[in-house]
Amino acid sequence: MIGILEAFLRSVAAFLLLMLVTRLMGKKAISQMTFFDFCVGITLGSVTTEIGLTGNDSMGTAIVMLFTLAGLTILTGYLHLKSMKFRKAVNSEPLVLIENGQIVEPNLKKSRITLNDLTSLLREKNAFNIADVNNAVLENDGKLSVQLKSGKKPVTPSQLQLHPPEKGLTRDIVIDGVLLSENLEATNLTKEWLYEELKKQGISNLGEVFFAALDSSGSLYVSKGMKGKEQPGQHGIE
């Protein structure tokens, strides 16, 4: 029983320490992580595991290692912001794989990317014909940035001399049937206005609303609740 309790407490301690360390290190989206960030993450996970599994003597060492790694990562992030030379040394530079419509073969070899890999990455960017691509750059996070040739780009409203109004960011107004009063007040609109808009969409009370949001143009988006309505396999998911 003591062993089980100790394992539980160690797991909680490791979890809290990891939460604290990641909080100190700051936020970064998974899609923006470089290979270096990935390696640091794996190392931190391994050290955290040591905290949960090793004896008391080794546990102290593991905690010191955890915070040392976190400190070095924070320092690296600071130097990454302040020094371009350091940034190049750690993350290298983006590689141009296609320039002015021509494949840069030396950079393909340098990045260890085959033609099949390149065409696959292009398809992810909706470039199904390599002849449509003007420039393509392999970023530090492994993502491919693609610039299509002028004649292959989608037509924009400005090119058609159209000027649609900007909608801006949306504010959540209702979540799972609960009205977010502060957000509604920030839009200078009243509950009466909201209820009237909901009635126009055939909704008589907030309990029927799963999600509602309002953009800066005053357009209200409403998604009704579907509790108990979905049947097995109805939406292609068993």
Explain how this protein is built:
This protein has 238 residues and is α+β, with helices and mostly antiparallel strands. It has three domains: 1-88; 95-152, bsu07140 like domains (CRO Repressor); 171-224, CRO Repressor (2-Layer Sandwich). Helices cover 46% and strands 15% of the residues. The protein contains eight helices and eight strands. The strands form two sheets. A four-stranded antiparallel beta sheet has the order 2-1-3-4. A hairpin with a 2-residue loop joins strand 1 (95-99) and strand 2. Helix 1 runs parallel beside helix 3 and helix 3 (56-82) packs across helix 4. The longest helix is centred in the N-terminal third of the chain and has 27 residues, at 56-82. It is flat, with a radius of gyration of 26 Å. The protein starts with a helix and ends in a 14-residue tail after the last strand. The mean pLDDT is 81.
Number of domains: 3
Shape: flat
- The count of DSSP E runs of length 2 or more, i.e. the number of strands, is 8
Cα distance spanning the termini: 41 Å
Average residue pLDDT: 81
Q: What fraction of residues sit in β-strands?
A: 15-25%
Class inferred from helices and paired strands: alpha+beta
Q: Which bin fits the share of residues in helices?
A: 40-55%
Radius of gyration: 26 Å
Strand order of the largest sheet: 2-1-3-4
| Number of helical regions | 8
Low-confidence stretches: none
SSE run: HHHHEEHHEEEEHHEE
Domain YetF C-terminal: 82-214
Pfam families: DUF421
Protein name: YetF C-terminal domain-containing protein
Subcellular location: Cell membrane
